[in-house]
Specification:
- With about 300 residues, this protein is an all-alpha fold.
- Helix content is about 70%, strand content about 0%.
- The N terminus is likely disordered.
Length: about 300
């Protein structure tokens, strides 16, 4: 006597309930509303990130595919970054750019912070005139005084180097003095008065009390100056163009592009290496940078 096994029952799929469909439609509607509310920010993000993505993809292409209709690399050529170091003295240019940006930023802070503190806190005859001169120097294009200043550095035999761009920072920067002064006047005088009651002089009050409270503004002006020096092309072109060993990345990248203009993958790889440090620094310092810029505009 044989027995037949009953076929196993396959559980039937239960149709989605009305509650599940309603929840999905609500989430979809919320997503559309979020996109609509942030449409301008999304469009601006795409506009700013689009060139960076294009540079990155082109830097990883081979020479035959670069700047063609094919936007996605057929092969990922990471050796392009190693090749540009063989074709150009990038390490020397990177060192020169770091020295120029770093020393100029440090010298600017050492000279601009005391001047801004004096304009914000001291009451002396001619204070408004001094502040007016600072604003006037902000409006004066550097090309106006380029010839006489160049002749001065030529007589000092410093042309062909970056020192004519670094040493003047010991005399202060008008834009940095203006921003720091605008921030320092927002700090209540009670803090400095309490420090003076405790026996602190002006220098000790500045170092112990004012500077810790002015960190956002100091970070903002430091980043402004660092980015300006890192991307500066006019200054190194004017003073250091005769000596390849004193070139910066901006000047070297322009020369590299003119020599290798048919090899756009290498040009894009060099461009990516130049802009990557700036993006990384801003990414880690964006909070204090934005806070400093916001506070310097509040009176």
């Amino acid at each position: 006597m044989t027995t037949t096994a009953s076929p196993s029952r396959v559980p039937a799929r239960t149709p989605p309930t009305a509650g599940t469909a309603t929840a999905a439609s609500v989430r979809w509607r919320q997503a559309l509303l979020w996109i609509a509310h942030h449409s301008l920010a999304i469009a601006l993000s795409i506009m700013f990130l689009g060139p960076l993505v294009f540079i990155t993809l082109t830097a990883l292409m081979d020479d035959d595919q670069a700047l063609t209709s094919q936007l996605w690399p057929r092969t990922w050529n990471w050796d392009n970054f190693a090749e540009i170091f063989e074709k150009a003295p990038l390490l020397t240019w990177i060192g020169n750019t770091i020295m120029y940006s770093g020393l100029a930023t440090v010298f600017m802070l050492l000279s601009s912070v005391p001047v801004a503190y004096a304009l914000a806190r001291f009451r002396f005859r001619g204070r408004k005139l001094a502040f007016l001169l600072v604003i006037t120097m902000m409006m004066l294009p550097p090309q106006v005084v380029a010839v006489p200043v160049y002749l001065i550095w030529a007589r000092l035999q410093l042309t062909g180097t970056l020192w004519p761009l670094i040493i003047p920072m010991l005399l202060g920067d008008a834009f940095s003095i203006f921003l720091l002064r605008q921030f320092l006047i927002t700090i209540p005088r009670e803090y400095s008065d309490a420090a003076k009651v405790d026996g602190c002089g002006e220098v000790r009050t500045l170092v112990r009390v004012i500077l810790p409270m002015a960190r956002p503004a100091i970070a903002a002006v430091a980043l402004f100056n660092f980015f300006y020096c890192w991307n500066d092309y006019y200054g190194p072109l004017l003073y250091a163009r005769t000596d390849l060993d004193h070139w910066t990345l901006s000047l070297g990248l322009a020369a590299f592009r003119s020599v290798h203009r048919v090899q756009w993958n290498l040009t894009m790889a060099a461009t990516l290496l130049v802009i990557a440090p700036v993006i990384i620094v801003f990414f880690f310092a964006q909070r204090v940078f934005i806070e400093g810029v916001k506070l310097t505009g509040v009176k």
